[in-house]
Specification:
It is found in: Periplasm. Keywords: Periplasm, Signal, Transport. Belongs to the bacterial solute-binding protein 1 family. This protein has 20 helices and ten strands. 45% of the residues lie in helices and 11% in strands. By secondary structure, the protein is α+β, with helices and mostly antiparallel strands. Helix 4 links the parallel strand 1 and strand 2. The strands form three sheets. Strands 2-1-3-10-6 form a five-stranded mixed beta sheet, sandwiched between helices. A three-stranded antiparallel beta sheet has the order 8-7-9. It is globular and about 65 Å long. It has two domains: 205 residues, Periplasmic binding protein-like II (D-Maltodextrin-Binding Protein, domain 2, 3-Layer(aba) Sandwich), CATH 3.40.190.10; 188 residues, D-Maltodextrin-Binding Protein, domain 2 (3-Layer(aba) Sandwich).
């Protein structure tokens, strides 16, 4: 029989928690012990509402709900969960920040806390507590979490945007491994189209799949929307090279990508209309769960984005930070909940349940077996370490958040690829928008 005393529960190791998740009565006992020892004591009669992005992997959401339920039973803090598509979280958070009313916590995308940094709860103590306990934060997470010396949000996780591709079709096109350079990738895309197994990238207002690939393309060719001093630099020869490369890809993609949002490529891949795209691991997870799609899961894999003329990885992955609004009546309960979510005994089984869809931002979680028990998940383990941030060379605050939420770079690529604008016009349009945002 296993005995759970407070010391044993609070010192449970990362690897042990990953392989022997606490559930049911054990999770509740651990949660009660944690609540008694945690630095934050929820206010009397505290209740919290949280708006989070709509899940893509059912098991992830099931585990999240189980953790929220255990927190409620351990602390008495009632939690109400609402879900929206992640492109809809930001406008609702902005309205709440401006009106001073709404959910206590928002769990959204990219630089969300930086859109209204003076309206959020300072969670520096939570970040310091977690960083010290779990091997420190990856560099990109620090940039997303901090505004100056203040942590305005806690980076919960990334969702990796990696290449999803079919194996047999790639081999038939002459590629035994996925291309590692942009030149080879263009040849791959052409060969796949020639064999009637094309792919596609989203060029509609897709905050995940659309933004991630166009930023990769821009950076891969040495383009930047701003320099280190936040001076707008989008109108450049490097940007034009990126646009021309993207158009060469576009001309070999499946028709219709100009109107795709984040759901279209998932459906097209699972419908076998496309054979390569960029996405989280949700396509693979869905295929493994559906007997009629098992042949797709068996015949697909994941790879990092190819490296371009810049000579180094230039990936942008989806950061999901959580923030607590400054107007919350329950700041201590909010901090306690955020810290609780990222304790090893909770977070390890949670990311295991997500099956590779969530990638950690704290170094200690590298050892979670979820990354090695299925080699097709392994590339997603390191996306937090590989990811650049939405600010590029510049700051990662409110201005960068506005540029990405307004789809400035994505619209520039879409306008040029679809033939609406020539390269000069597309760059000038983006330049004008960015100068308004950055006020230069």
């Amino acid at each position: 029989m296993t005995t759970f005393d407070r010391r044993t529960l609070l010192k449970a190791g990362t690897a042990a928690a990953a392989t022997a998740a606490l559930t049911g009565p054990a999770l509740l006992e651990w949660s009660k012990a944690w609540a008694q020892s945690a630095p934050w004591k929820p206010e009397k009669d505290a209740q919290l509402s949280i708006l989070r992005w709509k899940y893509f992997v059912q098991a992830e959401d099931d585990k999240f709900v189980a953790l929220m339920d255990a927190f409620t039973k351990a602390t008495g803090v009632k939690i109400t969960i609402s879900r929206e598509s992640y492109e809809d979280v930001q406008p609702k958070a902005s309205v709440a920040a401006n009106t001073g009313a709404g959910p206590d916590l928002f769990w959204g995308l990219y630089s969300l806390p930086h859109l209204f940094p003076t309206k959020v709860l300072d969670v520096t103590d939570v970040a310091d507590y977690l960083g010290k306990k779990y091997g420190g934060w990856v560099d990109s997470a620090v940039k997303y979490g901090k505004e100056g010396n203040k942590w305005v949000g806690i980076p919960i996780c990334y969702t990796g945007s990696l290449m999803n591709y079919r194996l047999a079709a790639s081999q038939k096109a002459g590629f035994s491994t996925f291309p590692t350079t942009t030149d080879a990738f263009l040849e791959y895309v052409k060969a796949m189209k020639k064999n009637n197994t094309p792919g596609g990238f989203a060029l509609g207002h897709a905050p995940g799949d659309g933004n991630t690939w166009v930023y990769w393309c821009l950076w891969a060719h040495g383009g930047q929307h701003v320099d280190k001093d936040d001076k707008v630099t989008i109108n450049s020869p490097e940007t034009e090279k990126a646009l021309n490369y993207a158009k060469a890809l576009y001309e070999n993609m499946v028709p219709g990508v100009a109107s795709w949002n984040d759901a279209f490529n998932n459906k097209a891949f699972l419908g076998e209309e496309i054979h390569w795209t960029n996405n989280g691991i949700s396509i693979y997870v869905a295929a493994t769960k559906d007997p009629s799609k098992k042949h797709i899961a068996d015949d697909m894999n994941h790879a990092y984005f190819p490296v371009g003329p810049a000579g180094k990885p230039t990936e942008l992955h989806l950061m999901f930070p959580i923030l607590a609004m400054g107007y919350t009546k329950y700041p201590q309960a909010s901090k306690a909940l955020i810290a609780y979510m990222l304790e090893a005994d909770n977070f390890n089984p949670w990311i295991a349940a997500a099956q590779g869809y969530l990638t950690h931002c704290l170094n200690a979680f590298d050892s979670n077996p979820v990354w090695t028990e299925d080699p097709k998940r392994t590339p997603y383990r390191d996306v937090a370490k590989r990811s650049l941030t939405a600010g590029g060379l510049g700051s990662n605050g409110e201005k960068a958040a506005a540029a990405i939420s307004d789809y400035v770079i994505l619209d520039m690529f879409a306008g040029f690829c679809a033939g609406k604008d020539d390269a000069k016009t597309a760059m000038r349009n983006a330049e004008r928008q960015l100068k308004r945002i950055y006020r230069t």
